[in-house]
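[SOLVED] Need 3D model of a two-part complex

Original post:
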Amino acid sequence: MAGSAADAAALAERILAQGPSSYAPWLDRGPHLDLLERRALPELRAEAWRHTNVARWYEAVLHGTVTPVSSHRVESPAEVEVVDFADPRAAELQQLRGEETYRLSAQPITALNALLLGAGAAIRVPAGSAASDPIRIVDLPAAYQRILVIIEPDARVELIEEPSTYTHRLVEVVVQPGGQLVHRRHQAASSHLECSLVAVRAESGAHYELSLLSLGSDLRRNDIVASLAGVGANVTLRGAWRLDESRHLDNQVAVHHRVPGGTSRQTYRGVAADRSRAVLNGRIEIAPGAQQSDATLNTKNLLASDAAEVYAKPELEIYANDVKCSHGATVGAIDDDAVHYFRTRGIDEHTARTLFVRGFLREAIDDLDAAQMLGLIQ
Amino acid sequence: MPERTSELADLVGQEHAATGREYAAGFVTEIEADTLPPGLDESIVRAISTKKEEPPWMTEWRLDAYRRWLSMPPPRWAHVQFPDIDFQAISYFSAPKGDAPKSLDEVDPELLRTYEKLGIPLHERARLAGVEAADEEAPQVAVDAVFDSVSVATTFKERLAEAGVVFCSMSEAIREHPDLVRRYLGSVVPKPDNFYSALNSAVFSDGSFVYVPKGTRCPMELSTYFRINAENTGQFERTLIIADEGAYVSYLEGCTAPMRDDNQLHAAVVELVALEDAEIKYSTVQNWYPGDEQGNGGIYNFVTKRGACLGDRSKISWTQVETGSAITWKYPSVVLRGADSVGEFYSVALTRNFQQADTGTKMTHIGPRTKSTIVSKGISAGSSQNSYRGRVRMNPGARGARNHTQCDSLLIGDACGAHTFPYIESKLPSSVIEHEATTSKVSDEQLFLCQQRGIDPEKAVAMIVNGFCRDVFRTLPMEFAVEAAKLLEVSLEGAVG
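Solution:
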């Protein structure tokens, strides 16, 4: 791995030399260029990349391993406004997302997304609307993508990210007061190297719900940052994953309680088989003064083979005293007693194990059909 | 100028000591000291080695550590903040003047008074003269007293020698038991393990050495009492405890320092080695000077403690009660190598005013069916920051291994912080790791209930905190548990608004 530190520098140099993409010229790329100038890209073994080899992803960026689809497919109900991210209207919507959302998504590798950006959509759900059909992000025709979602006050909608390929995808979400978003991310097994960041700002009385179903990839990294920025905001994050072969999934989640009276719930279930590696870093942060915050995180992991690896790091960072916070994490194997119990009732071992895994993952799945279709459960 | 500041510090110290609250151990002992000038280079390392009349291999060992230290960066990952330390401004050796005392009778009476004042009687006469039955039954504790850089006295050496137990200062061990020292020193915490362990390996001055032979149950509790007295010095003690096959030893450690406005560095290394069927119980009550109410002064307690369960069915248990120090950076850990070996970590860490603690443990499971238990209780008050940081790792081969971790935080006041950073790493399906953490405050209902029964709020909080810490206190030897509970109570005074 010698010289891998140079990879970040080499990549920065190359991108600076070729200049930023011409897509969505209204996007202010100054700070991102500056970040590359300062050589601030994470290097191999940076703490935030302990379990994911960031240099391998840089390789993918350098060599453009993703062949993007040609179609731009975003399906949405009539009442929802959807524009191409390059459209000047997207710039207006971007203004609405607020400074904080920008800060949330200002992670070093997001700079690469901004500089290489090639496709995207900006979505506005009008105040008070309750769409009956979900918004579906089917395909975006570039390796670097951006999705901006503004849920106006008291609007309700469901957003589905269908399995697709990208090198980096940024999803920025603002749920304005009283709004509700159910966000489903479906990630199929793939051989790509991909990173994504979901940055969410939930304002007062807003509900944001994430449901992640994933099968891992050659390298897949999901960053999720949710900020409870208004009194009484509610964030629910659920994730279920099952990895086999030598797939990799690294989930880095941070929930920030910024103001009083927020509630957050996180539930994750993961199964790692064969030579796969599953990572969950789940941080709960309670800011000074964010009293009466109520936050929990629960993650359970099954190791289904001798060569699989699980890393879990639930973190609490608390600066207010009148709060209820807890987290729980377990790592273990498929319960032999439970399998035995199945066997005594005439169910063969394979079926017993399958049922056990299904039951285990079920605790973090609220849409069984989608999970089944994706192949997450049988 | 330095004289005046020290006078002032004395006055402040006395005043605080007189009020009985706050930090009672904050006085300075006026004693002539032999102190090396501040600064660190190879000549200082050699000078320390020469002062301790060490053999050449030891000098080389130190120099090797020093050279490695030069190229190491200080760790910055802990959740603490402090200005960079000027390692050239610290004096690396300070010892009371005069030849090393050969027996307790030769120990400077001023020193004996100091320890008396701290509640650590070094004299053995009560025990030696006393023949009453009651006295015989009372638990006896052998003490190694470390004053600044040297061990000034070790008690009950003869009684221990009868049982074959070696309990002496590290300096003496290097002279008298070189084979054991060479074999085990640095075997659990290698010199370049981290920045502070490398520094310690280069300049460590004294500390305790314990060897408990095969099949021996150490006849009494062993303890070391560390005292920093001199100004602008760092204390770098080194402790090595070896429990041979089937041996058992319980070891207690206590520490205090005078109150000063400057920060002082304490960077110790403790290594424990447990062979087959051996058990080591290591308890600490850490009460270094925590700094004043504004966060000035106090000890930087940057300590590396690790035990190796080398033998099958061996057991190492760490218990710590941390109430002192401006900054604590400390992770007593266990490497579970032997099959069926057991590691335990019980911790109470209380921070208040501007104290910062980043403490926890690492349990590394290597052998099959190894077990570890972690119970951590953090209490934050005032404007303090209190973090638990721990790692549980199941390596391939640790079949059927188990870990259970419980870490709870209690917050008192709205300006403090409580944090939890557990790292859970498993590469083994047949092992089980469980981790739970909660954060809460002293509830109004609990307080109300106590006050209804005529218990004033301060006492009530002390009671509630005591209950919160009970799981840890019950693992301490009895006298220590009482001491620890008292210490918490004193530390909590004024913390409840």
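Edit: The radius of gyration of chain A is 21 Å.
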